[in-house]
């Protein structure tokens, strides 16, 4: 009986140690929440968002080439040029869900962005940002932002802090040069 009790106690202790070790391992390898996703670049190459953007301030923007807000590419590029060396990463995410305003292929989108607006910030593959086919990144962003809910139009912006938390969400009409928007970016960049 004592041998059986001793064996049971040993198994319980080993199980507890394994659970604690597994939890420690998960905690150590856990990517910042908003960056815990695999996506593809506009060129179709896999990208681990945590590997690419951990420790940086990231602005995710669902973009379109044939939208009234398309001119915001110029302002986004200006932000990129001004703040990239301070740790800002702008990530364009093409989407064709709003009025069919991003019908192009990846190559057409890349050519349009670079020739028309000189865009050199990162662009991901075209995805759905709402509905049944919603990309996991956007499921997270729309749920965890300060203003949760479905995306209403092209050029909505999500600001993610260095800690991987969504700290801001901005409607399409908020221009990249808007003073309050820029102040929010600068506030996040100041956090080290």
TrEMBL record:
GO MF term list: peroxidase activity
Keywords in alphabetical order: Oxidoreductase, Peroxidase, Signal
Signal peptide range in chain numbering: 1-22
InterPro entries from the UniProt entry: Glutathione_peroxidase, GPX_AS, Thioredoxin-like_sf, Thioredoxin_domain
Source taxon at top rank: Bacteria
Example of a GO biological process term: cellular response to oxidative stress
Pfam families hit by this protein: GSHPx
Domain Thioredoxin: from-to ranges: 25-192
Active site positions, chain numbering: 67
Family to which the UniProt record says this protein belongs: Belongs to the glutathione peroxidase family.
Name of the protein: Glutathione peroxidase
Biological source species: Botrimarina mediterranea
Gene responsible for this protein: gpx2
């Amino acid at each position: 009986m004592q041998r059986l009790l001793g064996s049971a106690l040993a198994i319980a202790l080993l199980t507890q140690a394994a659970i604690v070790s597994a939890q420690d391992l998960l905690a150590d390898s856990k990517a910042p929440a908003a960056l815990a996703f695999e996506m593809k670049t506009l060129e179709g190459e896999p990208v681990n968002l945590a590997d690419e953007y951990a420790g940086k301030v990231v602005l995710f923007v669902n973009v379109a080439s044939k939208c009234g807000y398309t001119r915001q590419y110029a302002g986004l590029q200006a932000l990129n040029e001004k703040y990239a060396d301070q740790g800002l990463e702008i990530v364009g995410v093409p989407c064709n869900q709003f009025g069919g305003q991003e019908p192009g292929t990846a190559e057409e989108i890349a050519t349009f962005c670079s020739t028309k607006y000189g865009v050199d910030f990162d662009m991901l593959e075209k995805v759905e940002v709402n509905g049944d086919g919603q990309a996991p990144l956007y499921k997270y962003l729309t749920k965890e932002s300060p203003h949760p809910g479905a995306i209403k139009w092209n050029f909505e912006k999500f600001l993610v802090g260095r800690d991987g938390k969504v700290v801001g969400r901005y409607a399409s009409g908020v221009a990249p040069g808007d003073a309050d928007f820029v102040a929010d970016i600068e506030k996040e960049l100041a956090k080290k």
